[in-house]
């Protein structure tokens, strides 16, 4: 962190700007890697379920919209997480800081789950109740599995 502060101060004294890439390269790479993993997991699970005869048409038709919406939701989630953590940093010295962080992260995760479920429900509408039930269930399953895999990778 002090290295970043030194880079910023040197740039300010020289009248230049410092790029985010030079300040936070590992954070940027990790967010992009996690985004690719999330996209891969979601598309893989949907591909497996699209092999079923009754779901093939519905999933093929909406794949482009689906991937675009997943990317949008993921980066919205990351931006809200970043801004929320910055705001919560103001309360770092208070005794209830850890409670605030847990409440914020849990609320944000539930918001992400609900938005993902709505995405699946909106994109994979079919006359067949099986497809609607399956797609809505996948909307909740994908983020839960994703968080499980990220936590598993973090513990390794």
In short:
The chain contains 7 helices and no strands. With 156 residues, the chain is an all-alpha fold.
Keyphrases for this structure?
about 160 residues; mainly alpha; 7 helices
Helix and strand arrangement:
Blueprint: H1 2-14, H2 20-23, H3 25-50, H4 56-61, H5 63-88, H6 97-123, H7 129-155
Helix pairs in contact: 3-5, 3-7, 5-6, 6-7
Architecture overview:
Helix 5 packs antiparallel against helix 6 and helix 6 runs antiparallel to helix 7 (129-155). With 156 residues, the protein is mainly alpha-helical. The chain has helices at 2-14, 20-23, 25-50, 56-61, 63-88, 97-123, 129-155. It is built from seven helices and no strands. It is elongated, with a radius of gyration of 20 Å. The longest helix has 27 residues, at 97-123. The two termini are 25 Å apart. Helix content is 83%, strand content 0%. The mean pLDDT is 77.
Order of helices and strands: HHHHHHH
Helix run count: 7
Shape descriptor reads: elongated
The number of strands is 0
Distance between the termini: 25 Å
Name the poorly predicted regions: none
